[in-house]
Amino acid sequence: MAMCIYKLTYFSLSHYPPTSIAIVDILTTLVTTILVVATHHPNINAVVELLRQGITELGVGPYIEDKGTGDLRYVQMAVTTYNTSLPAAERYMNGLLLSFFNSFGKFKLHWFRYKLNALANFLWKNGGPRSRLHLIHSVWANFQTSTNNIIFGNRWRHLLGERDFWEHVGGIDVSLAPCSFGQANTRAFDTLLRKLQKYVPYESSVADLYAGAGVIGLSLAATRKCRSVKCIEINKESKASFEKTIERLSATVDSSITWHHADASKDPFLWLVGSDVVVIDPPRKGLDASLIDALKNISSVERKALSSSESTNSSQEEKRPWVLRAKEASVQIGNRPSPANIPQSVPQTLVYISCGWESFKEDCKSLLSSKAWYLEKAHGFNFFPGTQSIEVLAVFKRGPQKKKPGKKKKKQLKGAVKH
Ligand SMILES: C[S@@+](CC[C@H](N)C(=O)[O-])C[C@H]1O[C@@H](n2cnc3c(N)ncnc32)[C@H](O)[C@@H]1O
């Protein structure tokens, strides 16, 4: 089926010899593998084919991990189906690609000037807006000069095409930058968001932890009329996408919305207080231990919140660091009071979105063992068809699980029969 992984396709060139013939072989192998995976968006396969031709013609050398030689390490592509000039039914098949190259080793100017530009121009000429097949939206380069196993470095360069890349998901227009996290399967993600929205009461205050560019929080602000939304994310590059997305939010969205460049594991109490609903969407490794502890000890968080709100009422000058930080990074929409000025609540609903089944099971066990939360509902989503991976949306509620009224009735009924 075509509905599947149509975004973020990586292929590593790292284990192959650095000759262009070998690259053809590598790519032939890789392309064959990629093409037979019918789950990819067809335009990814078409651009992979173009890339194979370009790499061969220009003699671009692959990075050899063991030797530390070569140039090109990864190529990543993402498809947007955002094109409102087309009828909705045609948008998917007409998706355009954002492709980016990842070069490795010391930053080599000659390589950048010649081969990287030549490769980008080759793609643009054959797949850009003036080509017979318009496949490519933009081309970017990333420079990873460290020898660790982190795929992307901090340096990005926009080479060709439009800078802004938009998708429509969860009821809002979302700006996606190559340097910020983006979900791999936007269609499946949209389904998950629609489900998630139903668990968030209208007018809630929401904390979106591990927020990336804040897509989840902003989607909730728009669809659930949230009083406030705080997005907490460790990657500062995501802020630019968040701000662009905010600009396109409907004027009817009347929430206090903030994005914070912060580590959710450092003093998580700061982010839990003042929220009715917490959404957590951690990387594959799952939740940080300090956040799990804070969630397990949510009652003490509640006591702390009460005492700090009492002490704040009596003092004139605001000193609490989380309030000061919230003010600093705040993007206010509408006339709602900021989170600092509303009564301090602690979350009653915890929504856990997981892409790592094993870590989710551990975290879930840990949360339930504390009796601070019970699992109300869980849904599975197939974000990566053909793989073992499953995306989970789990909804936890505060306190020990209440007995279902139906069961009680049965007991009474049994008793009544006995006597
Ligand atoms: C699975 S992604 C989810 C992103 C976002 N919720 C979305 O759907 O677009 C996990 C995000 O957590 C961020 N992250 C990882 N560790 C973090 C931490 N300790 N504190 C805050 N954010 C973190 C990553 O940079 C990444 O953007």
Automatic annotation (TrEMBL):
Q: What molecular function does GO assign, one term?
A: RNA methyltransferase activity
Q: Which UniProt keywords apply?
A: Methyltransferase, S-adenosyl-L-methionine, Transferase
Pfam family example for this protein?
Cons_hypoth95
Q: Which SUPFAM superfamilies match?
A: S-adenosyl-L-methionine-dependent methyltransferases (SSF53335)
CDD domains in the record, alphabetically?
AdoMet_MTases
**Mind telling me which PROSITE patterns this protein's record contains?**
SAM_MT_RNA_M5U
In this protein, the active site sits at 355
Specify which residues bind S-adenosyl-L-methionine according to the UniProt entry for this protein: 183, 210, 233, 281
Coiled-coil regions listed: none
Classify the source by domain of life.
Eukaryota
Question: Could you tell me which InterPro entries the record lists for this protein?
Answer: RNA_M5U_MTase, SAM-dependent_MTases_sf, U5_MeTrfase_fam
Q: Which GO terms describe its biological process?
A: methylation; RNA processing
Renumbered to this chain, region (Disordered) spans 400-419
Which family is this protein grouped under?
A: Belongs to the class I-like SAM-binding methyltransferase superfamily. RNA M5U methyltransferase family.
What is the recorded name of this protein?
Methyltransferase small domain-containing protein
The organism of origin for this protein:
Sphenostylis stenocarpa
